[in-house]
Amino acid sequence: MLHPTIALHSVCEITPELLESMGIRGLMLDIDNTLTTHDNPTPAKGVQAWIEKMKASGVQLRLVSNNHPPRVEPFAKMLGIPAICDANKPLRSGFERAMRSMHLESREVAAVGDQLYTDILGANVCGVRSIYVAPMAKESWKKQTFICVKRILEKPFLPKTFYKE
Question: What percent of the chain shows pLDDT beyond 70?
Fold first, then answer.
C-alpha cells in the first residue's frame, strides 16, 4: 500500500507523454514539498511553467491538500487550479471530490506527492495510480515534529529506484 506506481525526483519530470503512456488525463497534486517548500506562498522554480505545460496538453489538475483554505486557496488562485482543502489524506474523501470535479474515472487519474503515508497510501486506497516525488527541502520539515516523525517512519519504504525516460 505504500509503494507508488512510479517515483520521480521532481514534479517537473512528469511529462504529458509519460501521462499519455499511462492513460492518465488528470493529476491530483499535493502542495507542500511537492510544488513548493513547506508554507512557501509561491511555487518552486519551474513549477509554474510545468503547470502551464500540463494545462496546454489537456491534463486536468487539482490541488488536493490537507492544509486549510488560508494556505491552499491563494496558492490555487496563483496557479489557476481548482483546489480541495482539508482533504483528510490518506482518506478517500478528498481524492474522490477531486475526481468528481474532473469528471474522470479512477483509472484516468494519478495522485502526486512527497509523503508515503498521506499522498501515496491515499492514492492506493482510492484505487488511483500514485506518483511519488522526492521532497523539495528537508530543512522545512525538520522543524515540524509530526512531519519529521512521518519522514522517519517512511524511510524504509521509500522508493529505491526512480523513473528515467
Answer: 87
Q: Whole domain around residue 133: which residue ranges?
A: 6-157
**Cβ atoms 7, 160 nearer than 8 A:** no
Least confident of 69-83, 118-132, 144-158: 144-158
Residues 77 and 91: their CA atoms lie apart, in Å, by 25
Closest to 18 (Cα-Cα) out of 135, 127, 134, 110? 110
Q: What is the mean pLDDT of residues 49-60?
A: 98
Sequence-distant (6+) residues with CB within 8 A of 159 are: 3, 4, 7, 132
Q: Which three cell numbers stand for residue 150?
A: 512521518
Q: How many domains does the chain have?
A: 1
On whether residue 82 sits in a domain, the answer given is yes
Q: What is the CATH number of the domain that holds 57?
A: 3.40.50.1000
Type of residue at 162:
F
For 107-139, the DSSP string reads: GGEEEEES-IIIIIHHHHHHT-EEEEE--S-SH
Q: Is the residue at 165 inside a domain?
A: no
Residue 164 lies in a domain: no
Asked if the structure places residue 33 within a domain, the reply is yes
Between 33-42, 116-125, 145-154, the lowest mean confidence (pLDDT) is in 145-154
pTM of this prediction exceeds 0.90: no
